[in-house]
Amino acid sequence: xxxxxxxxxxxxxxxxxxxxxxxxxxxxxxxxxxxxxxxxxxxxxxxxxxxxxxxxxxxxxxxxxxxxxxxxxxxxxxxxxxxxxxxxxxxxxxxxxxxxxxxxxxxxxxx
Length: 111
Ligand SMILES: Cc1cc2nc3c(=O)[nH]c(=O)nc-3n(C[C@H](O)[C@H](O)[C@H](O)COP(=O)(O)O)c2cc1C
Fold this sequence. Notes:
By secondary structure, the protein is an alpha/beta fold. The chain has one domain (about 5-110). Helix content is about 35%, strand content about 10%. α2 (about 45-55) links the parallel β2 and β3. It starts with a strand and ends in an 8-residue tail after the last helix. The structure holds flavin mononucleotide (FMN). Flavin mononucleotide (FMN) binds near residues 7, 40, 42 and 64.
């Protein structure tokens, strides 16, 4: 296995109930050095990305953070991480150029 991806709504540093270590730390011990662990969850800033790869996981995925600011990764590479937009707004939705499907209300909320 090249990598194991953990999708964690509770955040990249979330721990199982009663555990001392995060899910990323626990799974890294299980899969060993030859398999990378990737965690997606709660990374909205360069500081969080740095904390995640320093302390919890080999690789990160950025879901909502990239939906809000599609330039998330590029801004960090360009040393512009302090300009990452982490809160959604009508103005940012226009800049992010979402596909029409993302803008539709979910069916269960439609009267
Ligand atoms: C629009 C959207 C669609 C998602 N679809 C899925 C999915 O199909 N399967 C899944 O396991 N997680 C899905 N997720 C959850 C993400 O994989 C991820 O765990 C979650 O968004 C937390 O990461 P984030 O804080 O970087 O967004 C989705 C999240 C969003 C925002």
